[in-house]
Write a structure and sequence with these properties.
Arc Repressor Mutant, subunit A; 10 helices; 3 strands; globular
């Protein structure tokens, strides 16, 4: 339903455009590799691999292709991370239709799109005397595991969700705790809630 709505909004504005839709990460990558698209609108949360991994693959194979990330997650969870990895913009799904159209036009013209509130966050983040928040030290996979632990999942559930071994997830968990200076899952969950890294 969300995909149909987005497509309709864009079709009304770009009436001669051709659209493609993907239900999961692999379909998205297949479409990107097959067709000469002008722009990709990408979700972070999708079946299969995470949107961050898909973004990395797109930027590796087609570095000039603009990718606008449209996500249900608040800006403070993913925005800086996706922009650092080459996305041309980040928007939440609550954004108005006109904002989406404006963002698409901006990235098609070679620009980057960020909301006013995100621009302020980025300015703070880039300030030289500002220390990076601990979660920014994590790799994309570590960040994904952090969010899953913080949402209350146990190691075996996370391993199953990500198609990885329990040992691998335990290693990620250990690295996350070390990098963030935390002692256990309770502290990790508290930190994630405090910094709005999970819903």
């Amino acid at each position: 339903m969300v995909r149909r709505g987005i497509r309709q909004i864009l079709a009304d504005e770009f009436n001669r455009a051709t659209f493609g839709e993907a239900r999961n990460a692999q379909e998205a990558l297949d479409l990107v590799w097959k067709e000469p698209w002008d722009v990709v609108v990408l979700d972070i949360t999708m079946p299969g691999r995470s949107g961050l991994e898909v973004l990395r693959e797109i930027k590796k194979s087609k570095p000039k292709l603009p990718v606008l990330v449209l996500s249900m997650h608040p800006e403070n969870q993913f925005a800086v991370r996706v922009l650092k990895r080459g996305a041309s913009g980040y928007m939440t799904k609550e954004s108005a239709a006109e904002e989406l159209v404006g963002a698409i036009k901006k990235v098609l013209a070679g620009g980057r799109y960020v909301s006013t509130s995100l621009a302020e966050k980025l300015a703070t983040y880039l300030a030289t005397d500002t220390q990076k928040p601990p979660q920014e030290l994590l790799s994309d996979r570590e960040f994904q595991v952090l969010r899953l632990i913080a949402s209350g999942k146990i190691v075996s559930e996370i391993a199953k969700d990500l198609s990885l071994s329990v040992k691998t997830i335990s290693t990620y968990r250990t690295r996350i705790l070390e990098k963030m200076g935390l002692r256990n899952n309770a502290e990790l969950m508290h930190y994630a809630m405090q910094h709005q890294l999970v819903e």
